[in-house]
Write a structure and sequence with these properties.
Length: 125
């Protein structure tokens, strides 16, 4: 016990590969302000590879107020024996933003990442 094994090295390489792939494919996680159309509440959304999901997993949707999504992600994590934790960081931020935009939120046009967010999410004027 306490020895470095091939499995430790393989696990490390997989984790580094996921992080490198996420950054190369989606870029670093970028914040984007969103505003609720009716109430005017301001919230922060994110685009790109989800570092928070990679580290905290299904807790991220729960903390962001998506209890149902968090439970679903927990069940998928259990069924996949944790392998979904390597896939969802690529998907979660975009899914979250799409859910927000279809639930009455809109991108803040004064945000520095507004144009990039419109392009990435496919939002039309």
């Amino acid at each position: 016990m306490g020895d470095f094994s091939v499995f430790h090295g393989l696990g490390f390489l997989i984790l580094v590969g996921v992080i490198a792939g996420g950054v190369l494919i989606l870029g670093l996680q970028k914040p984007v302000r969103i505003i609720h159309t009716d109430s005017g509440l301001v919230k922060k959304g994110f685009l790109g590879f989800s570092w928070t999901y990679l580290v905290f997993g299904w807790f991220v949707p729960v903390v962001r107020g998506e209890l149902g999504v968090g439970v679903l992600h927990f069940l998928i994590t259990v069924v996949s024996l944790g392998l979904s934790q390597l896939v969802f960081p690529f998907l979660y931020n975009r899914q979250f933003m799409n859910r927000m935009l279809t639930a009455g939120w809109r991108l803040d046009p004064t945000d520095a990442n507004y144009e990039m967010a419109k392009r990435v999410l496919g939002v039309r004027d």
